[in-house]
Amino acid sequence: MSSAPTVYDVAERSGVSIATVSRVYRTPDTVRAQTRERVLAAARELGYVPSGNARGLASRSTGVLGLCLPDYSDPDIESEAEHGAGDEAEDDAAMLYADQIIRGMERAARRHGYALLIAASSKGGPESQVAKVAGRVDGFAVMARTVPTEDLEVIAQRQPVVMLAGPRESDDLDHMDHVEVANADGQRDLTRHLIEDHGLRRLTYVGAAEDSPDVRARFRGYVEACRAAGIPAPDEPDVSVGMMTQAEGARAADALLDRPGERPQAVLFANDQLAVGALHAFERRGVRAPEDIAVTGFDGIALGRLVRPALTTVHQPMRQMGEEAVELLVRRLTGHRGARPVSKVLPVSVVRRASCGCAGHVN
Questions:
Q1: Can you give the chain as a three-state secondary structure string?
Q2: Domains of the chain and CATH, by start
Q3: Which of these, 256, 245, 312, 247, lies nearest to 287 by C-alpha position?
């Protein structure tokens, strides 16, 4: 086996100094974009992985697994949690999608004798985020769209990488293990519930402008259920928001109420945070849910149980996703490095509560 490429090799290939290569990975904003891209291209060609602990990377003996994810924090929920300090229910409400995945990974990592290193940041390029963990861990999981697939593929040649919450892009370009949930199935079942069990036909879908494979799959399930029932469905969500937060959900709700014409009978939101924000906005404007407009979400975070009316949603096994990611990493680290890539799709379930008109349901 040939020796691993070094920072010296990258510097020589890209025609820059070693210090410049180091700055590309540590402080990318200090390097001109053209130079930065030349260095990164050379690193990809050579299969170079930046390392803060070269000995640990070579021996696979760090005893640490990593998780790379964007910053999913919702300032609206964080503020609510702070005002409810000491209240266990409010603390649980602040546990969002990514937090539950972290909990699952931590639990499984401890079971296998590993620690967990987390890199979560909305600042800096994706390459700098990889540099935070790739050289300091034995293997890591990464949320879909956090890091370009081509960069992950280079790293996956030397250490196990698991992609979370996104389908395989291509069998030719993507050779990593994947863990995702049945997003389209869940949204299809929820939409069918509103149509068949509640007799609702004027439906509106609120999604995200960002290019999220999860959100795209959910919208696809919604469209399939509508068209199967003979209900016209658009090619794009009726309303697209910039971020999937409570504040954006409230703004979307206000925009729907201010639109001319007949109001929808139900609004399906791409996640629970949006739906909770909309419920608050509807209440503020005297619109009752579900009597005037039924509201649904997706994810199954604890906050959905606490709002009134309690939120009908699709529950996805977030902690299980984290646990499955660790199991796949450990499997690769204990003798299955050459096995074919695995794609796991975890099932979801519709949780029927009062916000859609299922009276008495508060589970």
A1: CCCCCCHHHHHHHHCCCHHHHHHHHHCHHHCCHHHHHHHHHHHHHHCCCCCCCHHHHHHCCCCEEEEEECCCCCHHHHHHHHHCCCCHHHHHHCCCHHHHHHHHHHHHHHHCCCEEEEEECCCCCHHHHHHHHHHHCCEEEEECCCCCHHHHHHHHCCCCEEEECCCCCCCCCCCCEEEEECHHHHHHHHHHHHHHHCCCCCEEEEEECCCCHHHHHHHHHHHHHHHHCCCCCCCCCCEEECCCCHHHHHHHHHHHHHCCCCCCCEEEECCHHHHHHHHHHHHHCCCCCCCCCEEECCECCCHHHHCCCCCEEEECCHHHHHHHHHHHHHHHHCCCCCCCCCEEEECCEEECCHHHCCCCCCC
A2: 1-47 (1.10.260), 64-181+318-346 (3.40.50.2300), 183-317+350-356 (3.40.50.2300)
A3: 256
Q: State the Cα–Cα distance between residues 362 and 62, nearest whole angstrom.
A: 45
Q: What is the pLDDT of residue 135?
A: 76
**Buried/exposed code over 26-63 (b: 16+ C-beta within 10 A; e: otherwise):** eebeebeeebbebbbebbbebebbbbeeeebbeeeebe
Q: Crossing angle, helix 246-258 and helix 272-284, to 10 degrees?
A: 50
Question: Which of 276, 259, 245 lies closest to 204 in space, CA to CA?
Answer: 259
290 preceded by a cis bond (ω within 30 of 0)? yes
Closest CA to 281 of 305, 307, 312: 307
- Average pLDDT over the chain reads 84
Measured at the alpha carbon of residue 23, what is the angle toward residues 20 and 26, in degrees to the nearest 5?
160
Question: Is pLDDT above 80 for 172?
Answer: no
| pTM of the model as a whole | 0.77
State the average pLDDT over residues 311-332.
Answer: 96
Tokens of 3: 């020796």
The answer to whether 185 and 224 have CB atoms below 8 angstroms apart is: no
Q: Any residues with CB less than 8 A from the CB of 146 and at least 6 apart, and which?
A: 68, 69, 70, 126, 129
- Cβ contact 137:333 at 8 Å: no
